[in-house]
Amino acid sequence: QVQLVQSGAEVKKPGASVKVSCKASGYTFTDFYVHWVRQVPGQGLEWMGWVNPKNGVTNYAQKFQGRVSMTRDTSISTAYMELSRLRSDDTAVYYCARIYTYYDVLTSSYSDGLDMWGQGTMVTVSS
Amino acid sequence: EIALTQSPGTLSLSPGERATLSCRASQSVSSTYLAWYQQKPGQAPRLLIYGASTRATGIPDRFSGSGSGTDFTLTINRLEPEDFAVYYCQRYASSTYSFGQGTKLEIK
């Protein structure tokens, strides 16, 4: 079945970096962009960016520009999100998700949605 | 950047009632790129609606989405106990995505 399995929880000190992995299975990894979304405990969802597994092209939310790097290894169907210069307010659950593009024949239009999510990775930043 | 504002922040209803959740954009949003998600405690979000009004695979027909321009609505008819959760709208524009702050649907 289609699934995304993320790496385990991490505890990091302020100023350090963290790299979270997201392994895809059950579908052709290079056919769907992978997005990263985070959620600070008790708060809402925050979109971080995406990586195109086919060619490695990325697009990041302005808030994370210069601090985030999203990569992939197609040989093992795995996407990665690395966040550097960690601060305490980066403590959050980090999710990867696959974006699925739907085509409506009647209206000749495209729409999309994050149809498959990883289980989330808790990253705690604490001195 | 286009901001999404969801209302109400919390909605208290009883099973069997109808829930109406609002998502308002600060500028006009293409309805083809407006989605809704449900999130239960300790779980990843689940895609409910894409293209403002199309249910994702496996989503019961008591869930419906509507709207265009700046105003979008998620309606849940005949609330079931498992529907009590947090709901987020999401939009896409110019290669970036953003979420509303969420509406918590709680049991009255």
Task: Give an account of the 3D structure.
The complex is a heterodimer of chains A (127) and B (108). In chain A, 0% of the residues lie in helices and 55% in strands. In chain A, strands 2, 4, 5, 6, 9, 10 and 11 form a 7-stranded mixed sheet that branches. In chain A, strands 1-3-8-7 form a 4-stranded antiparallel sheet, with no helix packed on it. In chain A, β9 and β10 form a beta hairpin. Chain B has 108 residues and is mainly beta. Chain B is 0% helix and 58% strand. In chain B, the strands form 2 sheets. In chain B, strands 2, 4, 5, 6, 8, 9 and 10 form a 7-stranded mixed sheet that branches. Chain B has a 3-stranded antiparallel sheet with strand order 1-3-7, with no helix packed on it. The chains are: A mainly beta (127), B mainly beta (108). Chains A and B meet through β5, β9 and β10 of A and β4, β5, β8 and β9 of B.
Strand tally of chain B is 10
Largest sheet of chain B: 7 strands, mixed
Number of helices of chain B: 0
Contiguous uncertain segments of 5+ residues of chain A: none
What would the average pLDDT of chain A be, to the nearest integer?
96
Helix amount of chain B: under 10%
What would you call the shape of chain B?
globular
Helix content estimate of chain A: under 10%
Unreliable stretches of chain B, pLDDT < 50, 5 or more residues? none
